[in-house]
Every structure is written in C-alpha cells, then in structure tokens.
C-alpha cells in the first residue's frame, strides 16, 4: 500500500479493535502488499486490512471457520471477538489469531507436503462455488494483453508470457484428471511455522483444479513427499505459475516489494524452464 493508505489502514484497524474492547497502543507491520497485515499490541491480535474494492473477506472468514472446525492446518480467527468482517474508512478488516514464530526454522519438505495434503483432504468435500484455476490464468492473460496496465513490458517478453500462459493453460486444463478445491497460492509466504505445526493463511485465492497446481507454488522438494503426483503435470504447472506471478510483477499497480527486479529475473527463469523441458511456450 502507499504511505497515506497505510496510515489510514492502520488507523482503521486500531479503531475497530478498540471498539471491540481489544487494547491497542501500537502496531507492527507483518506484511504489506495488496493488503496490510498488522500485529496489534498489546492485545496480540492480527488484523488483515484491504481496500473494500479488492477483497473477498466474508468468504474467507466463512471458509476459515469451516476448515478449522474439521482440523485443517489453517490459521484461526481471533477467539475473543465474533468472526465477522468489519468495514471502516474504505477498508475491510478481519481479525485473526497471532502465532509466535518458532525460531527461524523453515518447514521441512515432508512437513510442508503433509500440511498441504491435510489441507486438501479438508477442502475436498467443500461444496462452494469457486473459480477454476484456469480463470486465474485468464486474468494474467488479460493483463499481458493490456499494454496500458503493463506499459514497461517489452514486446519480446510480452510475447513470451502470452504464449506460455496460453499454451500451458490449454495443456494443464484439458488433461481431464481429478480436480478439487485448492488453496490457490500455498507458497512459503502463506505458511506459518507455529508450535502446533505449519498453518496456512490467506484463503482468498481458493480455486478448483488439480493438486499439482497448488504444489507448483511450494518449493520443488515438497512435491517428492506428496503422494499420487503427476510429475509431468506438476512440471507444467510450475512453469505456468511462474508465468502468472511474473505477469503480476509487471502490472503498473503492483505493490510487491522489489517486484520489478523479480519480474525481470523470473522472465529469464521462464526461458530456462521452457528450454530445459523441451517446450517453446507456443501452441
């Protein structure tokens, strides 16, 4: 978020928490991108703040409740207040449990895969309308095609992203294998290391597709510990996801830290991945 928006977002979160009898004297920014994640002190509650126009907070709250009730490894809502969405000054705010990080230890590939497998098991019976993963690919395609939204993207790179997204959307989306509800972006930034084990956050990206699409967001070693994986599909999904997140970095409105440098670096990785897998990214 921009500086003035951050100040307003923080003020909105503090005001809402105080109105719920939570003691708030200070905040710590835990994450700042398209939404702001704050630790409210001394009440030790996490506030997730997003502009009203950029959120699906009510759906995320309801989904988190359902998954937590079945024992899925997801972060819980704040227990001291009612689970609901709050709105103030153009922002929506949801309140969550704060988990003290367990040292600096990264989640092992086996534990990561185990947590993702349990999450998938809990999401499998969900009967909720969610977009298919290819819908998210199409969002990236529209962004690539919109020169006003991606003005700094060179023609050669635009061609590369457009061809890669189109080709891999078709090849991964037409396989006809099993599909289910997925997290959508279970990358390490959305996985907390807690005393009770790894927990996933940020459920607003839920979609439907093959589990390989979720695994494509995790470190490569994780796939080796997940049962029943289609290795060829996972390989294609990895390149597809890389093309998607690279596209987001070239959005003129992208607020990801150091996003443009990463976008440039990832373009090179896409070319290397296509060459290494005998693909050219074209139909």
Question: What topology emerges from the helices and strands here?
Answer:
Blueprint: H1 3-19, E1 24-32, E2 36-42, E3 45-51, H2 57-69, E4 86-88, E5 91-97, H3 109-123, H4 133-145, H5 155-173, E6 180-182, E7 191-194, E8 197-200, E9 207-209, H6 211-215, H7 220-223, H8 231-249, H9 259-276
Antiparallel strand pairs: 1-2, 2-3, 3-5, 4-5, 6-9, 7-8
Helix pairs in contact: 4-5, 4-8, 5-8, 8-9
**Uncertain spans:** none
Tally of helical runs: 9
Largest sheet: 5 strands, antiparallel
Structural class: alpha+beta
**Shape annotation:** globular
Characterise this structure.
There is one protein chain. By secondary structure, the chain is an alpha+beta fold. The protein is 43% helix and 17% strand. The protein contains nine helices and nine strands. It has a five-stranded antiparallel beta sheet, covered by helices on one side. Strands 6-9 form a two-stranded antiparallel ribbon. Strand 2 and strand 3 form a beta hairpin. Helix 4 runs parallel beside helix 8. It is globular, with a radius of gyration of 19 Å. The two termini are 38 Å apart. 37% of the residues are buried.
Please give a quick description of this structure.
The chain has 283 residues and is of the alpha+beta class. The protein has 9 helices and 9 strands.
Which features does this protein show?
283 residues, alpha+beta, two-stranded antiparallel sheet, 9 strands
